[in-house]
Amino acid sequence: MTSSDGGKHMAAEIAEQPAVLGGLLARRAEITSVAERVRDRRPRFALLAARGSSDHAALYAKYLIEVLLQLPAGLVSPSTTTLYGAQPDLAGVLLVSVSQSGGSPDLLEVTESARRRGALTIAVTNTPGSPLEQAAELAVDIGAGTELAVAATKTYSATLLALYLLVDAVRGGRGEHAAGLAELAAQTLDGSAAAVAEAVRRYRFVERVITTGRGYSAATAAEAALKLAETSYLAARAYSGADLLHGPVAAVDEETAVLAVTSAGHGGAAMREVLDVVRQRGADVLALGSAADTVPAALRIPVPETAEEVAPILEVLPAQRLALGLALARGGDPDHPRGLRKVTRTR
């Protein structure tokens, strides 16, 4: 921490996450009751509406729905409703609107419109009684408590867990893979501290970062890029490992740092070819995840191994700490990033 104590809110909220996750797990029955309503309606496919960090959580939920429920799922473009007035038939559709504040006008309008057109609507939010929660038929409270830092940390990981518990309960699961996540989150924060500090020293002066992952971990790569951009003002871009090889890899060179999310499972295994290519182009690779030790990299940040479907809940924790550390090392205050407010209102 700097002498001016910059970033104190972000640091505190990162540290709160094991307790927040534990509290959410203790309320799993509330989420199960929502899941039962979904199961009774037997949706034919799912749509997810979100912005910012919540959009990355929605991407994670898209993988969960398609893999665990075997339902097609897509991310909504809110402007098709708010700007163009599209009114598709949504009978038999599940719409999940994800918003930490529950106050974004575009997500509110999308949710209201979808409900009128026959969708089963669920609001996943950190603000009980918010306009979004009132607009939706069902609601899941992530229960992360007030978040003072502009950069979302505890609300993001809690949203991931809430979405996992919801989807798992819809398929009839009992949250077995999530049961120990509070303890594992504490282990992740403690066990990765030295590696994160070394990464801060190594990348303090870097200006161009690519973050990449596959499968469930694509959401972590997207969230890591956002955190680096909004707190450290880095030119950070996120790509799935597959998309990176389809053109953007041409921009990778010796001046590029690559944050590669590689956890045990199909997604992590698919990243090996990607990292072979970027290493050949001279990139400096930082591997993060439970499979980080299995891939070529200049530095590695370890994460305890879990079922692949819940790995993003742990992966993001050291990525948040990295963004915090780099922001402070570069002379910034991540609690007050320039030009940003806690709640962004778009239409």
TrEMBL record:
Protein origin, superkingdom: Bacteria
Keyword terms of this UniProt record: Repeat
Alphabetized SUPFAM superfamilies for the sequence: SIS domain
Entries under Gene3D superfamilies matching the protein: Glucose-6-phosphate isomerase like protein, domain 1
Pfam families in UniProt: SIS
Record domain SIS: where: 34-176, 196-337
Name of the protein in its database record: Glucosamine-6-phosphate deaminase
